[in-house]
Amino acid sequence: MPQKICRITNLWSQCNWQKNETVSRVIIESTQLFPYQIDYLNQKKVVFNILSARANMAPQTIEVSDGLIDKIIIQQLVNDVVSVDIYLNYPMPGKISFRPGVPTKTILSFDRLFIQHLFQNKIIALDPGHGGNDYGGRGPVSLIEKDVVFTMTKKLQDLLEQNKAQVLLTRETDQNVPLAHRFLLAKKFTANVFISFHVYHSNNPKVSGLALKYNPQAENNFYLAQYVYTELARKIKRPLRGIKVDPQLCYLENIPGIMVEPVVISNWTEEGLLRNPTFYEKIAFGVFNGLRKFFSN
Asked: Domain extents for the chain?
């Protein structure tokens, strides 16, 4: 009797943070359990072929960029084979588990231990710009810079601490902090990196997009700026306003430091993006991936 054709109904990914296990997961939803073949190519590409199956979705590339999983490509092959190609940033074997039900879930889990080792013992100073009676820029509706950059900072803090980094905050509440004190904190604790969050404001409401500034005195700081700029652009998909030197960051001396402006708060579209919690997660992962590349090289 021929095998009943399985339907692949959905595919998604997530990071799972637990005390005893931190993993990146690929979850495949289907109408039933299925036979499969798995191959590891060059340690960084996993080919997971689902047999006797058809995809209820068009061929697509899913950009993940969670630090470990770079992207996933799903496509329908001949002879009722659905191919799921998983591209990893670091070689890592996967574990497979199954959850019967409606839908049935097949879970491929990849350990994030290498990334945790990469960030372990790293001291990262995070600076939410403005604060207190220094409001910063204001959006055309109601958002205020000092608030949105604090949310960005906390999202990145959570992600870094989940990956074993030590995080210093230049302000933990809505308070005034002199610029010199922000730099002194990073210097006092010999931070590996200093990251300041801001959003740009323009009198021209059409101006939009991502910009980044860096400390020209720190060795290899331009590479940090490039990595963060590239990875952040990939995650948030906004127009690019460029990378520039920031003379104020020179007060950090030899500490690599960047100022990140993910969006322009005076732009109607980008103020709207700042109302979406998912957008802050994308910003956090973009900066995190840039740091990951910097620490890897």
From this structure: 6-111, 117-296
168-221 pLDDT, tens digit per residue, is 999 999 999 999 999 999 999 999 999 999 999 999 999 999 999 999 999 999
Q: Do residues 9 and 87 lie in contact, with contact meaning Cβ atoms separated by under 8 Å?
A: no
CATH of domain 6-111: 2.60.40.3500
Which pair of tokens denotes residue 47?
A: 């080919």
pTM: 0.93
Residue pLDDT, tens place only, 128-142? 999 999 999 999 999
What are residue 240's DSSP bridge partners?
Answer: 210
CATH architecture assigned to 117-296: 3-Layer(aba) Sandwich (3.40)
Would you say 276 and 231 are in contact if contact means Cβ atoms under 8 Å apart? Answer: no
Tokens encoding 177: 């902090």
pLDDT digit string (tens) for 69-122?
999 999 999 889 999 999 999 998 889 999 999 999 999 999 999 999 999 999
Give pLDDT, residue 216.
Answer: 96
Q: Which amino acid is at 249?
A: L
Residue 86 corresponds to which amino acid?
I
Helix axes 277-296, 145-162, angle to 10 degrees: 50
Q: Which two tokens stand for residue 183?
A: 């730099």
DSSP per-residue string spanning the chain: -PPPPEEEEEEEEEEEE-SS-EEEEEEEEESS---EEEEEETTTEEEEEEESEEESS--EEEE--SSSEEEEEEEEETTTEEEEEEEESS---EEEEEE-SSSEEEEEEEE-HHHHHHHTT-EEEEEE--BTTB---B-SSS-BHHHHHHHHHHHHHHHHHHTT-EEEES-SSS----HHHHHHHHHHTT-SEEEEE--B--SSTT---EEEEE-TTSTTHHHHHHHHHHHHHHHH---EEEEEE-GGGGGGTTS-EEEEE-SBTTSHHHHHHTT-HHHHHHHHHHHHHHHHHHHH-
